[in-house]
Amino acid sequence: MAVRIALAGKGGTGKTTTAALLIRYLVETGKGPVLAVDADPNANLNELLGLTVETTLGEVKNELRTSVPESMARGDFMEMRVHEALVEAEGYDLLVMGQPEGPGCYCAAHSFLSQALQRLEKSYRYLVVDNEAGMEHLSRLNMVEIDHLLVVSDASSRGVLTAARIAALVKPLQLQVGHKWLLVNRAPDPVPEALDRYVRETCAKEGLTFLGYLPESPEIFELEVEQKPLWELPEEDRLLRKAYRLFEEMLK
């Protein structure tokens, strides 16, 4: 069974960037194969990884309603198309949920993704899920067992409080989480003493383990503006080195 890592946090905190850095860390340190899952309907993890997505699971689900060949069992067709939806890369594969059909709830699309994950994850050592903002979506995915929940916040007391509230949803959603971590992203250097105190007090109160701070990165901003993947971030980059140390601490 793969080690399951789920990322959560409100929009704009750099959650997807953190997911891409984590995937790069797992691949470059030989911990693959990795299955990366973009479970956010507003999918952009592939752009940070430099991959092109031809097919999403939402599209595969729609095909099951109209395009199953008469000579093929529905289950066999689904398995074939899910594997075709995988974007294969060196050391990892990417699966994108995409938009569901028509207006309304995402529940059916999440249910379909859940079935696909159950079939696929046995072939990987790590499963990294970039989740939509909030936690309810992990419940809909039937990811009731998570080894590491990494909640990403920005460097503000309001952001840290929101992250703590997201993590607190673990209990009412009946998720079984091995470790809950808080990562504060885009932090100033040095970190203000008042912010650091608030972060640590909040973690202690909410049962979170504080993983650390990641600094603001002009280099990442430049790559995103130029629409270049995070693989182009130099190995000696300060943020990359810090992120790798934090991921190593999380997974030791």
Automatic annotation (TrEMBL):
One Gene Ontology CC term in the entry: cytoplasmic side of plasma membrane
Gene Ontology terms describing biological process: negative regulation of cell division
InterPro entries: CobQ/CobB/MinD/ParA_Nub-bd_dom, CooC, P-loop_NTPase, ParA/MinD_ATPase
One Pfam family cited in the UniProt record for this chain: CbiA
Domain CobQ/CobB/MinD/ParA nucleotide binding: 7-229
GO molecular function: ATP binding; ATP hydrolysis activity
Database matches in PANTHER family: CARBON-MONOXIDE DEHYDROGENASE ACCESSORY PROTEIN, SEPTUM SITE-DETERMINING PROTEIN MIND HOMOLOG, CHLOROPLASTIC-RELATED
Protein name as catalogued: AAA family ATPase
